[in-house]
């Protein structure tokens, strides 16, 4: 994957997370998301971090309908099914995946992509033309990485199809600072600015897929990802 940069972590993660007290423990404490009436979708290592970086991450639940999800799958499945999942590249940032890029979409899907771009990117921002489609096997996962600053700009946005999942952000130079984002099936996430440049992001593997202490079973998951270009 040319778009990705693997980031080695000096602190063994398992040990590290065990020593953390998860925060917040309830919606009422969450600060950032407590003001909305929506579900709790972002938790972090401190209230301060949730406040500071929480403004640069967004999860919009039910961004697409079941019908729209089916339209996207109908368009994407035939091409994806021709490929095999790749598991064996130990140095890859992604394990258990197949992927494609798409520039031209059918009318129904084009409308969905346009809606994604209109909420995620400032008008007038130059976009990466091809949409990245990443199909993770049930056993697949994405290791911590930062998308290439050479090829991608300040904003990354993605639709999640077929499965709920947990995206974890960890501050690159301070791994005690982290945010977990719950990405329900059919939600849209947006990473901007510091959240995109200063934090690694990853999608947890099924065995580790917990959000705020709650298990989030991982099925096969397809992400439809739009990016802008570097300034
Ligand atoms: C990527 C990535 C996240 C996702 O492909 O760089 O981080 O939602 N994908 O699949
Ligand atoms: Mn990425």
Automatic annotation (TrEMBL):
GO terms for biological process: DNA damage response; fatty acid metabolic process; programmed cell death. It comes from Hippocampus comes (Tiger tail seahorse). One of its GO terms (cellular component) is mitochondrial matrix. Its main location: mitochondrion. Belongs to the alkB family. PANTHER family: ALPHA-KETOGLUTARATE-DEPENDENT DIOXYGENASE ALKB HOMOLOG 7, MITOCHONDRIAL, SPERMATOGENESIS ASSOCIATED 11-RELATED. Required to induce programmed necrosis in response to DNA damage caused by cytotoxic alkylating agents. Acts by triggering the collapse of mitochondrial membrane potential and loss of mitochondrial function that leads to energy depletion and cell death. ALKBH7-mediated necrosis is probably required to prevent the accumulation of cells with DNA damage. Does not display DNA demethylase activity. Involved in fatty acid metabolism. It comes from the Eukaryota. Its cofactor is Fe(2+). This is Alpha-ketoglutarate-dependent dioxygenase alkB homolog 7, mitochondrial.
């Amino acid at each position: 994957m040319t778009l990705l940069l693997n980031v080695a972590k000096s602190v063994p993660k398992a040990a590290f997370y065990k020593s953390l007290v998860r925060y917040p423990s309830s919606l009422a404490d969450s600060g950032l998301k407590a003001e909305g009436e929506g579900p709790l979708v972002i938790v972090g290592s401190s209230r301060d971090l949730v406040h500071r970086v929480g403004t640069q991450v967004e999860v919009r639940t039910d961004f697409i309908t079941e019908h729209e999800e089916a339209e996207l799958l109908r368009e994407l499945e035939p091409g994806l099914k021709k490929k095999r999942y790749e598991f064996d590249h130990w140095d890859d940032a992604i394990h258990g995946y197949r992927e494609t890029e798409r520039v031209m979409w059918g009318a129904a899907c084009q409308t969905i992509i346009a809606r994604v771009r209109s909420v995620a990117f400032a008008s007038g921002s130059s976009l990466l033309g091809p949409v990245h489609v990443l199909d993770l096997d049930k056993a697949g996962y994405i290791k911590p990485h930062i998308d290439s600053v050479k090829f991608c700009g300040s904003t990354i946005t993605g639709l999640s199809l077929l499965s709920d999942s947990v995206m974890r952000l960890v501050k690159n130079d301070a791994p005690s600072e982290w945010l977990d984002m719950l990405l329900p099936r059919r939600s849209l996430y947006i990473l901007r600015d510091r959240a995109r440049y200063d934090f690694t992001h990853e999608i947890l593997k099924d065995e580790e897929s917990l959000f705020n202490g709650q298990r989030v079973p991982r099925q096969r998951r397809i992400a439809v990802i739009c990016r802008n270009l570097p300034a």
